[in-house]
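forwarding from the other thread:

> can someone predict this with zinc ion?

sure thing
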Amino acid sequence: MIEVYFHNSLTGKKEKFSPVDPNRGVTVYSCGPTVYNYAHIGNLRAFLFVDFLRRSLKLLGYKVNMTMNITDIDDKIIRDSIASKKSIQEFTKPWTDAFFEDLKTVHAEILEHYPKATESIPEMIEIIQKLKSKGLVYEKDESLYFSIQKFENYGKLSKIDTSGMKTGTRYDTDEYEKEDVRDFVLWKSPKVEGEASWNTEIGTGRPGWHLECSAMIRKVYHGGVDIHTGGVDLLFPHHENEIAQSEGAFPEETFVGTWLHSEHLLVDGQKMSKSKGNFYTLRDLVQKGIDPKTIRFLLISTHYRSKLNFSTDRLEESANSIRKIQNCLDRLLETEPDYERQGLTNFTHPQCKIWKEKFENSLSDDLNVSKTLAVIFESVREINLMLDFTNLVESQHRKEFIELFNYYNRLFDVLSFESKKDLVDSEIDSLIEERQLARKNKDFARSDAIRDQLLAQGIVIEDTKDGLRWRKK
Ligand code: AMP
Ligand code: ZN
């Protein structure tokens, strides 16, 4: 295990990370989707951060044990399921399936646990009972509220000042005003005809959104977690309220060791969000012909604590970056067509050793993705140079370079290791035709991509007075 440092939102500092029980694995809980519609690529940035964290921890030698919840009951789900005359299960099933399909499309690894809120009601009741016994709960109109004034540490994550707060002001919705400190609902009595509810010993009703996460952490881990993640918009009040519930109910336990918050995806400087209407789903972009690998790379290649502005230029940059790396890899695969990857990491080539070490050092420094990319591009540049003098690179080293790319790909997962077969003449002709058309349409990204693809196969295009010709290098 390599020592890793994270910026903990709780302390505001970069700290050395140590899991409570490395043998059990690093326990991580991430706030997941509310399944009432397709996720947009802003949501996907938060979910891919979880994938990046998972792959980084594994690469650095840690075992992982990770959870993302499915919020399958909340105000919006109740509203939309009633409107579509479906039960909560019927309504949420296709959106839950769509969420998993999207994760698969962008190559996010499957986590160990995906609990659903509707399957965690007993744990919610347990927490409420504990909170009641400690005097932290009051009832109003048959709903139960958490009294934040009675909880000493309220505000420790968000550093929000509760001193000017009026007593007894309440939130009983799942949506709320930012910066506004109020008591929040734990258990909501049914308000709307046909609303889903559970008949329990604390009354008939359904959980408030914040309670769901505290309960699912308990359901999966029977205690706290090493790391809790979510988008920055969840820091207050959602995560603050999770702390209040879990630490209020179980003061003897550590709820969360390290809080990691990922920044937003923006469009023209504004947060991408459903309510603003400035969003794209993954499906929108794939339908426009954008390769999911490009979207994956775009969303993970900016540091998780930096805002990222989405634009078509950024997509193109991302496609170009992948192409640069892939072209170098293709050159290696071309000369070692029968080589089967072994998943090696104990390199013997001195340069590979250095690159691997730099890569790991960058990752272990609060997942510094920019530095890992700098290492990749440095190695691409140098390997390309070596390959230009092909006789000087021994086969054994070329194989190690392939393994090095394989190693990088354990994190980024955007490269293809299929060794390219030779193109036949008619395929070359049709690619050149397509390139001409792309140039005519000013689609230079496509025309450059075709030129690079041909070059990687040793085909050079020449402009002669009789028109375009191609030849093998
Ligand atoms: P939701 O389904 O709305 O509960 O959101 C799921 C996750 O997406 C949460 O972790 C949010 O913080 C995150 N999220 C929402 N909008 C954005 C955005 N524009 N950029 C990055 N993450 C976001
Ligand atoms: Zn949550």
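The chain has three domains: 5-262, 311-412, 420-472. thats all i got for now
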